[in-house]
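Onboarding guide, step 5: your first structure request.
Type a short instruction followed by the sequence, for example:

Predict the 3D structure of this protein.
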Amino acid sequence: MCTSRTQSTQVGERPTTAEATSCDCCATEAGSATGSAERSLALVQTTNLVTGLTCHHCATSVTEELEALDEVSAVRVDVVPGGESSVRVASTEARTERVRTALSDAGDYAVSGRR
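The system replies with structure tokens like these:
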């Protein structure tokens, strides 16, 4: 399983996408033992509805805070300015409280529900 990290934002009618990719599949031989161990962990996919996101900068802040958590392997943010944005998290553990704390640390963002 590839542990690429991808971020996507959608603003208004025109979607914009920013991608940053980091892949354990392409690791050198020295790093392949770690990549192999990470790939063997089962990932939990959660989608949180989040308020307070208005732009690409908001999506970047949220993505960076969530990716800083050890258990998170991928984040995707779909911004809905003035509404409930979708924040999808792939992680080895589903800890809603850690996600809430990371969102609070990133700015004035709050989980309003889950999908």
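Each response can be followed by summary notes, for example: The CA atoms of residues 15 and 27 lie 31 Å apart.
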